[in-house]
Amino acid sequence: MLISDGYEVYARYAERASLTHAQCWAHTRRTFERAKDIEPTAVAEALERIGALYACEKAFREQGLSGAAKRDYRLTHAKPVVEDFFTWAKVQIERAALLPSNPLTKALHYNLQRREALSVYLDDPDVPIDTNHLERALRPIPMGRKNWLFCWTEVGAEAVATLQSLIVTCQLHDIDPYVYLVDVLQRIDQHPASEVHLLTPRLWKPHFADNPLRSDLSRSAPVAQ
To answer: 173 and 81 in one domain?
Structure first.
């Protein structure tokens, strides 16, 4: 499963890797907001429909639904809204007065081309409606860009990007990044290359988190009473 915005590179990667690709409704909303000064009525309709989808998300969270119950709620309440949204979008795109250069035209094309990916979340309760949680997790990176502006080499920049990705992934899985890195940096020398995927944070947690390798500093530190 790959969850992303509408950048076409992600779609090509998902196809090449045979991954199910889900896309973000928050980015869908943003495409319409760019057209609100030119097409305020149509944009208001689009945002109202998208807002109804987020109202469904809020409703099942308040009810504490998860798993199959969450999926059923989405299929019952959100799926008709999604179908209505794309039906409305098709009607709008066929308007004779809508020029190709109109920002609304671009927004409509963007979303109609991504209908399948935008509908994935309806059938899978583990897929979020948007990527906002990922953007929040990555926000410290652009906020601190001046601290790592100069990596000296492309290799150094790639290493920084890898570490930042690992740290954010650890946070998404409720893993202490320090504990994870201390364990993996010691474990990797004795770990079979054919099973290196088990050292990614998502798989490391069920296999090694209960008994991680500790550093000498951790072992020598006094235990708080």
So the answer is: no
